[in-house]
Specification:
Elements lengths: L4 E5 L7 H13 L4 E5 L1 H11 L4 H6 L3 H16 L1 E4 L3 E3 L4 H4 L4 E5 L7 H5 L6 E8 L4 H9 L8 H4 L2 H9 L8 E3 L1 H4 L13 H7 L5 E2 L7 E3 L16 H18 L1 H4 L24 E6 L8 H8 L8 E7 L4 H15 L5 E4 L7 H15 L2 E6 L2 E3 L4 H6 L5 E7 L10 E4 L5 H6 L14 E2 L10 E2 L2 E2 L3 E5 H5 L5 E5 L2 E2 H11 L4 E11 L1
Parallel strand pairs: 1-2, 1-3, 5-7, 7-8, 10-11, 10-13, 11-12, 15-23
Antiparallel strand pairs: 3-6, 4-9, 5-6, 13-20, 14-23, 15-20, 16-17, 16-19, 18-23
Amino acid sequence: MIPKILLFTWKTTTLPRVMQRYYEKWEALHPGWEIKLWTDETMRAFVAASYPEFLATYDRYGRMIQRADSFRYLVLNRFGGVYSDLDVEPFISIDAMIEPLQCFVGLEPLEHISDDRYHAGLPYLMSNAFMGAEPGHPLFKLVVELLPRLADQETFFSTGPSMLTAAGLRMSRQDRPALLLPKVWSPQRDGGLPVRSDAALTKMLGETATLVGGSGKPVVSHKWLTTWVPWHARHSPLEKPFQVPTMIKWWLRRKRFRDLNAVKIPDPLIYYHDQTFAPAQPGPTVFVAVRLTGAEPLHARLAQALRGLSYPSSLLRFGFYSAAVTEPDKAAVRASVVPLVGSGEAAIIFGDGDGDVAARADNLLAEMGATASEKVLLVGGSIRDIPPDAIEMSLAPKLPVVAANCIDAEGKVADSSVFRYLHAPKFRILWKVGGLSGAVEPVPEQRAFLKQQRAFRLVPLDGIGDSFVLIDSKVIKAGARFTEERYKLHVGGEAFGIMARDLGFEVAGLPELVVMSK
């Protein structure tokens, strides 16, 4: 049972006028409830006393909203109760609504979910503006565990709705919070207009979690004042007239540059509801295809990492591509793979030295692997460290193309071709990344990398790179390739991901599966 405790937060005990009015309505509608308003000062004191191990992380957050976000999870985990933003107006007592629930969170109106959220594979978000739970509920225990691990992430992914959504989806169906449909708790959207029907959300979510629908009037109404956003960046209905010239400009550009407007980068083929998978049991045969760096032999650390894979050796085959041309270089390559594959004849493809191209090498390895095994694991020669269970983890989502999170020794993104577009890559985005020239540029501001999405265990990708990616042989046999020529403005592993999805194969990445590059 959720305790009858109402929790609010603000900078001080002096509230803005509209929030004071809502606070008084909460008091009037909930006699007998314990109602507590926490301030910046008392929140930090609570963290210091109840979660001293978290205090350093709390103090290091770059924004106060991150502290306020994290506090609400911590206090709900410790005491239970109902947390509400102060811009949530109550209409009736929430007693009847919470009586059958152990935990609940509100779902954001679909109108708030723009192309960035949809392209992430999750066309919905759990909001942390109105939620409640029993003390120690599994959701908030998990959130408290995740918070320090995600402290370096952007606000949405470190403490905000994306993190909360990811945490909810990491749980088994029976432990997930009940989800309040917008008509119940947020009948108006950002800007004050009414939300649409909840039917689309209900259909989309299916059996993902228990859904709480409305009957008659809503229980509360979130006003979306977004006080944590600078005033000039907040949504306003008055924006529309000022956007008309920009809308006309982009309409004219689409009409003029029809070829670019015709480029369609596919969205994910599935919803990424399931974040609960465990490492898969070994089963399919895997061809480990290593594209060596130039004419260099197999690096000893990469050989050691491949020998350390926990996947049964009886299910593994190995192949290599080398740009070595001279006989001494070829002999050095052959000798370098002996500790990995033994003294028998290794499957080594040597380039002809005439403009060796990575995409060509990747395709030769992929095609060789697709004829020999059920899966092809493409590994770049610059990789140095691989988790032992990397293959089992790559098999776990049961998807045809799965890439790992490749970072360098400094923790930076090592393969910028493993990405998804931050916003759905329609005409405007493709224009901004140089699509008018016939090829896109890897503009970091328009790309989301696995390193930045560690709240989730599985996310969709547009590009898969060629550093560490497991590919079902069916994808290769269907015609997906690492292209030298541009495919929808992209080449190499970026084109492969887009082409695979065009062919009906989903393309995903594992933010928590980290491989290290030199």
